[in-house]
Amino acid sequence: MKGIIQVGYVKYVMDAEKAVKFMALLEEAEIYEDKWNSNKDAEGKENSFYSHHVYNNGDVTKFQTLEFMQDAFYKMAKLAGKPESK
Questions:
Q1: CA atoms of 33 and 84, how far apart (whole Å)
Q2: Contact of 16 with 22, CB cutoff 8 Å
Q3: Residue 21 and residue 65: Cα distance in Å, rounded?
Q4: 21 vs 12: CA distance, rounded Å
Q5: Where are the domains positioned within the chain?
Q6: For the purposes of burial, counting CB atoms within 10 Å of the CB of 27, is it exposed (0-12), middle (13-18) or buried (19 or more)?
């Protein structure tokens, strides 16, 4: 059996056992985010900067999912290969 892990908009396929371990690792990880802050001071001078943030995973896990795929379906999808770009 395979596991399908979706992180953001990308889906990854791996052995189910590894997928469960991977999701457990992601749940333990903290989030890093850099944020652009566009500010002007009292004189109208541009004072923009990046702020850097690290915080608990919390609700971000809703963007991570784990599904399971039977081996027969995996083999069929593997035979189909990468889809053609149009």
A1: 34
A2: no
A3: 13
A4: 14
A5: 2-80
A6: exposed
For the entire predicted model, the pTM comes to 0.70
Rounded Cα distance between 71 and 28, Å, is: 29
Sequence-distant (6+) residues with CB within 8 A of 25 are none
Residue type for 49, please? Answer: F
**Which pLDDT tens digit goes with each residue over 20-71?**
999 999 888 888 999 999 887 777 788 889 999 999 887 665 678 899 999 9
Distance from C-alpha of 13 to C-alpha of 35, rounded to nearest angstrom = 31
CA nearest neighbour of 66 among 18, 6, 2: 6
